[in-house]
């Protein structure tokens, strides 16, 4: 990892989405739209659009939910949607390991969902604190260690793809 970990994230997300679509598994996309005008995640900022590999297919009934805080369970009806469709397990991918993905995973675990955190389809960036730079791979692995067996099962893209193939 340079200043972002994981290097194959986009490719892995593309493979996972394709596999979920072929297996007719439900997909819900979550986009962070900060309410803070100065945030890079504010909807008015260039670069806050979903990348092509992660965009929902409207023809596949893939909802795109917009949240304004780290957790996808606050301020939107994600839990209601999941319960109504009978979802018991979640597969988490995206940005960033130690913010949105981690917070959503912790809440999902607390709400009783079985969470699979796909370590090579999630990424983060270098962090800075007290004049020090914490490399993205360190942030990433510390988050994995914190979530593992407490809030989620840490898996790889390959493991999820193999699991889907048996459905």
From TrEMBL:
Q: Does the keyword Transferase apply?
A: no
GO MF terms listed in the record are: hydrolase activity
Hydrolase found in the keyword field: yes
The highest taxon in the source lineage is Eukaryota
Q: Which UniProt keywords apply?
A: Hydrolase
> What single Pfam family name could you report for this chain, choosing any that match?
Isochorismatase
| Domain Isochorismatase-like positions | 7-158
According to its UniProt record, which protein family does this protein belong to?
Belongs to the isochorismatase family.
Task: Indicate what this protein is called per its UniProt record.
Answer: Isochorismatase-like domain-containing protein
């Amino acid at each position: 990892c340079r200043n972002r970990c994981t290097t194959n994230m986009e490719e892995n997300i593309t493979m996972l989405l394709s596999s979920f679509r072929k297996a007719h598994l439900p997909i819900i996309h979550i986009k962070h739209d900060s309410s803070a005008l100065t945030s890079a995640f504010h909807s008015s900022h260039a670069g806050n659009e979903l990348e092509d590999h992660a965009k929902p297919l409207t023809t596949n009934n893939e909802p795109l939910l917009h949240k304004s805080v780290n957790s996808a369970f606050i301020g939107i009806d994600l839990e209601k949607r999941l319960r109504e469709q009978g979802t018991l397990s979640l597969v988490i991918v995206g940005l960033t390991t130690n913010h949105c993905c981690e917070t959503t995973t912790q809440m999902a675990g607390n709400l009783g969902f079985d969470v699979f955190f796909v370590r090579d389809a999630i990424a983060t960036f270098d962090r800075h604190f007290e004049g020090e730079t914490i490399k993205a791979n360190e942030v990433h692995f510390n988050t994995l260690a914190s979530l593992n067996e407490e809030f989620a099962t840490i898996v790889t893209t390959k493991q999820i793809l193999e699991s889907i193939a048996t459905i």
